[in-house]
User: What shape does this take?
Amino acid sequence: MTASFIEKGKGGTPLLFLHGIGGNAEMFRGQLDHFGRTRRTLAWTMPGYGGTKPAAAPGFGPLADFVLRLLDRAGIRRAYLAGHSLGGFVAQEFAARCPERLAGLILYSTTAAFGRPDGEWQRQFIAQRMAPLHAGRSMPEIATALVDGLISPRAGAVARGAAIALMSSVPPDAYKAALETLVGFDRRDALAKIEVPTLLIAGAEDRTAPAEVMRRMCEKIRGAELVVLERVGHLGNLEAPDRFNAAIERFLARVEAAG
Assistant: This one.
């Protein structure tokens, strides 16, 4: 098995969540419970995570192919695709490759390119994130510091604890592979070609995918909407689940009312 998913609910146009580097399908348990009341809702565990086999080849093309196979395996013709952080990169890649399979796109705490053109920022980022593992520390040992660099200082203990548990469970090899996959991602030129309804959700205190960066993304996607969650960092669905869910609910209602 190269990727897996969990799901809840029936009916409606399905909604599929894609997690980032520090998560798995369980990251979206709150969204599965919430949206599963009214529609079929799914969350994937990326290849290499949760006991699944890693992708045979690096890059976002193979990961987008896994999304396509997941939809086919689940018997889903069209879905809303919601991608967080690295999962947002996968969602953008999928939108460029398979737009006919999308009912809409939700890009959450993500960007259209990783790093800066000269590549030096990317190298420093990877080296910094890899250093603790190279020093022999385990994911549980480094999880707290990683999470505290992602969430808002005002995040509640429940959200912080859930994020640390998720990060702690990431296999070291999968974490390393995901970091290496980030390098070279750039879909900025594809933003203007996105034609499905699109919602962007940013955390006002997100230092990884700043709200201003997401605002510039939004301006390049025709008809897109940006929602900024105040007092929230990089993990909005855990830090402010009610506001996060409400933003998506409004988006889905508007798209489906427009028919």
